[in-house]
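Schema walk-through. Below, the input block comes first and the output block second. Nothing else is stored per chain. Lengths vary across the set, and this one has 642 residues.
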Amino acid sequence: MPIRRFIVVFLFFAAALGAIFAYRVYKAERQLAASAIGGLRTFRAGIEDAQALQFENAQAKFLSVGSSTPSFPSAVGGPIRSFDGAVRALGEVFGNAGGAYRDFRELSLRAANLLGTLQKLQISWPAYVFRGDKNGDLIPTLRSLRDDLTSVGELGNRLAGYGRVFGGFAPADPDDYLALQAEVNRAKRLLDVLLPWLESDTDRHLAVFFSNSAEIRPAGGFLGSYAEVTIRHGSVSDITVRDINEPDRLFIKNIVPPGPLQALVRRWRAADANWFIDFPSSAVKTLEFMEGSALYASSGISFDGALAVSPRVIEDLLDATGPLVLPKAKVTLTSKNFLAVIQEEVQAARAARASNPKNILSEAAPELIDRISSDAASSVKLFEFLQSWIAKKDVLVFFREPEFQSFAVAYGASGETFVPAVTWNGDYLAIVNANIGGGKSDRFMKETVTLQSQVGSDGVVTNHVAFARAHEGRGEAWWYAVPNESYLKIFVPLGTRLQGVSGIWQRTVVPKVKYEKEGYAIDPDVQAIEATAAEVPGQPGVTAFKESGKIAFAAWTKVSPGATTTVVFDYMHRLLDPPAPDRTYEVVIDKQPGTNRRYRLEINAPVGFRWRENGLAVFEKDYAPDDMPGRITLTLTFERAL
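--- output ---
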């Protein structure tokens, strides 16, 4: 019958059409999958290059992805016309997927454009900042950067949406886009605030502290010198290098110093305000004292922020630019002799009662800046150094503008201490020294921290910390060859109980002033910490107090030239959750800025467990001084031993 034959032909034709459609989809899906995976790998490699500040390499990868990724419709063969509602739905899905790939390609091209702008800034920023933005390029360049970030953000939002709808069909996991999106949004918020900040007619003031790690203090070295930097319309209009004694001499307030500092000074001033383990807290206090000095108060100058740089930063810059000849001081500074020469010149100037013992820094600073701003290779090298400086806490940043500070915190440049979450399950350690009366002897201290930790099956962690300190300054200049006298604080989790201490120095501090009788003011931040202080029962010479959300055990140490002293702390605390298979355990160690210590870690799993990460009952790690990051974070996983 004709109708029967028609039905057979129709079904045969429908089956053939379905087979052709399925074959096209199969081939297209395989082609797209291979293309998407390859493009995504290149895209991720580009992100890694960008994070390493290799902008040119990253730009090339993004351009490659943007020009080669095919759209889905071209692979399938144009819009699909189906005879079935289900096939129409599939066509809609595949059409949207094609949009996702087009957006992925556009995202890559936008990212490449963005990196081109960053590359321009990478090369030209010293000229913009230090030589004046003569052509007016800086603000337009930053605006272009913000526009590219806006486009990247919008495309990222769309791609994340595709991922949520189509699951694994989008060119990447939605979490990848969300992570990238967070970075893009953070950078855009920064530029939204930075542009009007730079365009303002108001002078901006920054203090750049030169932290002298030869005299260590809690958040880095002693802040004996600083550069007062004035910024106008995005460029540095003035740099004045000062001795910290300049504002201190004109600071008339009488404030009680923290207890240990009373062994050295009569009143608290900016020179000794770098007292807190948390750099923003130290920066705020130092700027507060400086602004209270008539040097700045008389003209109403306030500081927008502060940067602290270690000697390593200057040494790296000299390594990049080459030796710096200073005719007035009659010296040549190199990356090898910088700290020693500066210290020697300052000591000689003080012995001669010079009015400004830091004149050598005043001469060196503009010469070094001129080298950096006139040499494109040095500018690029500086970007490469920057990542290392931040990672190792050689550069610390504080801004009063919340958005600027939030950006610094996000990238680990703020010097804030680790703050555990409420549900955190782990161990924490920070060893912090304050050189009080020990000259510049820290330059010749060789230190090793050994942590032996035993996690119990009941969740109790027992720790043995040995802090070995060798003084190698015998025979050196007198300011190095004095006994190293330090106030030592070991920061551990709240709830920790100290079991034993050895190797400490029993020192009695006698205040130089009867503070209450003389009417000295009490600093509220110091008072809040010292109000929690108490002697540790059975451990003479050890005080316990709370600071930065941790328990700190504090004691004095003293090491003579040529001698080695080992301070030992034994303590225990209980985890929030006891060990269990697949449960993670985190060990966090904050490095004290300016220190150059070796760290040796031995983390023992409970009986019947091992660590998944190495398949052993003991996890060991050794960090050489030059390899020690600003923060160690080890995430270990409990696993039943076989």
